[in-house]
Amino acid sequence: MEKVIVAMQDPDMGMKMRNQRLLITVIPHAMTGRDVIDWLIQKYNICEEEALHVGGMLVRYGYIYPLKEPRSLVLRADETPYRFQTPYFWTSTRWPASELDYAIYLAKKNIRKQGELMEYEKERYSLLHKRINHTWDFVVMQAREQLRASKQRRKADRIVLECQEQAYWLINRPPVRSLTLHYSLTLCVCVCVCVCVCTCVFCLCLQIESCRRALGRNRVKSSICLEGFVKFSEQYQNHDPIMQGCLPSNPWISDDTAHWTMNSEIVPVPTRLRVERWSFSFMELLNDPIGRREFMTYLEKEFSAENLCFWQACEDIRHGESSKIIQKVEDVYKNFLAPGAARWVNIDSKTMDKTLEGIKHPHRFVMDDAQLHIYFLMKKDSYPRYLKSDLYKNMLAKAIVPQETKKSVFPFMRRQRHSSPSPAQAVTQVTEEDGRAMGAGKAGTNSAFSLFIVSSLTESKPELTFSLLQHFFLFPSVALISNPLSRM
Amino acid sequence: MPLVNNKVGDDCTVGTDKALADGKALVDSLIKVVACYRHLASCVGSCTDSLQLRDELRQTREKAQNLAVSICQHLTSHLRDKSLPEEQRKEMELLWVAFSSGLELLHVDMCKVFSMGDIFSLANSASLVQTGLQGGGSEVAARALSLPDLNQARAPEAGLESQERSTMEQEISQIDHMIDDMEMKVNVLRWMVEPHGPQYADPLSSTDSASLALLSVDEEQPGHQPQSQHSHMVVFVVLFAVVLVATTLSVCVVFFS
Q1: Interface test with A, best of B53, B104, B199, B221 (most A CBs within 10 A)
Q2: Nearest to A83 among B28, B131, B140 (CB)
């Protein structure tokens, strides 16, 4: 935009200048809106609409300011006069308009004529007075000195300088407009007034948009969130190595890696805790390699193994190499989706159509919809049956429960099951008693943090809160030792 | 003995009072020079930009810098003096805060002038923006330098532009360092400083404000003018009617008596 302005200054090819007449004074270098548009059309060979747009931007960003109605920053294609803004006041991000400058400007305006400040300016003035109070003397003195300096110039120049400054501040601290929408805009207005750092009109519109979007967002009640959290912690309570200790012994303390070897990925016989976890959620089962293998065996018996194979293939596409995606999508289509395929999966027609469309331009996520459909199919149908099946029950019975290593002979060297003599141990009895007394039932477990929140939210149990606060610091370190807990 | 002690005490406070007054005078003049520099800086790149303006800018800037250096020394030496009494320290801190704000403004203005001097080189005067200003800033510069009239005989030489730019770069970095140094050496808690003046300052002398107010009425609220004219008209009409009534009454009195 700056180049355009500089091009306009050309004495031969530039803008035609007129004189502005104010009662007695005559000020040169004014131009009408029509002049601006005509010049833009002629110079850049564009249509009128585009010239109007470009000219409008010049006004909005402060390179040209209107003389008659300074607050309306639009370019009118008629006789309304405009003038160029001095380069000192050009919009620049390198030197943003500072609060100190704005305070000095408002002080000047006030000193010039008492009561000339508009409402929003008065509010901002008092806000600034609070914020940069320490330098207020300087602000007032600087304002006075600037006014005295400008008195040294002739009247016409003084008018021009005042207009320039006013235009600059109208752009950098735009007036707060009262609009007719409800909550979101009162919010925006409050934000604008309180946070005095708003820049242009565009930022206001952006704020309005983001407030509107925030209103429409999905929300979950915090009590529901926390109930879910409590359920999760209760379920995983016994599987947590810090809360329950890990068997046979904590490798970090006893230097015995039996725990890790017993729980590694592929093991002939998995531990009991691990098999129990498969019943918590479908994702747990799928994430465990042994679990997946078992599930596959079960599905083969039920003749619906193609579902799991399809799901696995889709996972492979999603997480695999980019170069092989196209090939893999082809294979999946051939094996699972093509009519008459060897292992045809049962997907509803809408998803099938969408997937087939997407296969024409394959990318990493084309199979997502179909994969999700099959996932839910397995989860609702096969998974509950698997948990009730003999296969699973046998697995559970076969699973080993490692023995805790015996304490060594020497009385001085105690191998501890827990990482430290945790306060959890000491307080467990207390909370259980309280829990039974209050009839809280399951709430008397060691899930400290969640209980603290839930108790304060649902029923107020101040007696519990203090003891539970002690649990607070244990909870974040839950997943330190064993495999990370998968998501619910 | 007590007399002697009192004398010593008086001298001490007198010394710091004088220092305070000196500091205040220096800071006041710095504020004045910064205001004038800003005023001149707003003309850079516009149609009134000329070698003379640049020269005036340079002179004002040098003056501001000399003032800044002396204030810096003065204030840092006094604020680091641990034996300063409490009220004096408060006053010094006020001065210090005003000084640092003035220095910030000066720094920003110098950077702007530097970069705009880059863009709007005087050699290509066709590209200067026509902003409507007509007069030069000589009177403002004269005010800044506290001279009754700027010595016009010292015509600025062309070709000094490049030299000027390198000195300017140095000066800007010097001011930068000064600001940093000040922050390091003197620990003034800004939230503890309380200003003297009221929130809304009194206007300048009535003549000044009246003339400037008229201008703003001219420019900003042309809508109000017809209204005031309207009220003037009403007043005229009323007066005229009163005069008319008075003359008819007197004529009647003369006629009937």
Answers
A1: B199
A2: B131
Whether the CB-CB separation of B32 and A145 falls below 8 Å is answered with yes
**CB-closest option in B116, B134, B215 to A88:** B116
Searching chain B, which residue's CA lies closest to the CA of residue A13? B126
For residue A400, list its beta bridge partners.
A271
* Partner residue facing B120 (CB), from A87, A129, A139: A87
Return the sign of the alpha-carbon dihedral for residues A48, A52, A54, A58: positive
Per-residue pLDDT of chain A (488 residues; tens, 9 = 90+): 777 887 777 777 777 777 777 777 788 888 888 888 888 888 888 898 998 999 899 888 888 888 888 888 888 888 888 888 888 888 877 778 888 999 999 999 988 888 788 888 888 999 988 888 888 889 999 999 999 888 888 888 888 888 889 999 998 888 876 554 455 555 655 555 555 455 678 889 999 999 999 888 888 889 999 999 999 999 998 888 888 888 778 888 888 888 888 888 888 888 888 999 999 999 999 999 999 999 999 999 999 999 999 999 999 999 999 999 999 999 999 999 888 888 889 899 999 999 999 999 988 999 999 999 999 999 999 999 999 999 999 999 988 888 877 655 555 555 555 555 555 555 555 555 544 544 443 444 444 445 444 444 444 444 444 445 445 544 444 444 444 444 44
Please list every residue in chain A whose beta carbon sits closer than 8 Å to the beta carbon of residue B98: 135, 137-138, 141
Do both A313 and A381 map to the same domain? yes
**CA A320/CA A160 separation, integer angstroms:** 67
Contacts of A133 in chain B (CB under 8 A): 194-195
Q: Given A143, A149, A162, which is nearest B216 (Cβ)?
A: A162
How far apart CA B72 and CA A482 sit, in angstroms, is 63
Domain CATH for A337 = 1.10.167.10
Establish whether the linkage from the previous residue to A423 is cis, with ω within 30° of 0.
no
Q: Do B130 and A17 touch (CB under 8 A)?
A: yes
Q: Which residues of A touch B219 (CB under 8 A)?
A: 22, 67, 159, 162-163
**A17 lies in a domain?**
yes
| Global confidence as pTM | 0.52
Distance, CA of A296 to CA of A319 (rounded, Å): 21
- Asked if the Cβ–Cβ distance from B135 to A157 is below 8 Å, we say yes
C-alpha R_g of chain B: 28
The tokens 């191998």 sit on which residue?
A415
Are residues B139 and A153, on separate chains, in Cβ contact within 8 Å?
Answer: yes
Q: How far apart are CA A357 and CA B1, in angstroms?
A: 106
3-state secondary structure of A22: strand
Quick one: A270 and A391 in the same domain?
yes
CB contact under 8 A, B130 and A29: yes
SS (HEC) of A400-447 = ECCCCCCCCCCCCCCCCCCCCCCHHHHHHHHHHHHHHHHCCHHHHCCC
CB spacing of B143 vs A152 below 8 angstroms: yes
B124 in A contact zone (CB under 8 Å): no
Q: Are residues A39 and A112 in the same domain?
A: no
Nearest to B143 among A10, A149, A156 (CB): A149
Q: Is residue A299 one of the residues assigned to a domain?
A: yes
Cβ within 8 Å, pair A162-B200: no
Q: Do A392 and A280 belong together in one domain?
A: yes
Closest chain B C-alpha to A207 CA, distance in angstroms: 30
| Number of folded domains that form chain A | 3
3-state secondary structure B33-87: HHHHHHHHHCCCCECCCCHHHHHHHHHHHHHHHHHHHHHHHHHHHHHCCCCCCHH
Query: What's the gap in Å between the CA of A76 and the closest CA on chain B?
Result: 18
Asked if ipTM goes beyond 0.90, one says: no
How distant is the Cα of A445 from the closest Cα of chain B, in angstroms? 50
Q: Which residues constitute the domain of residue A109?
A: 99-172
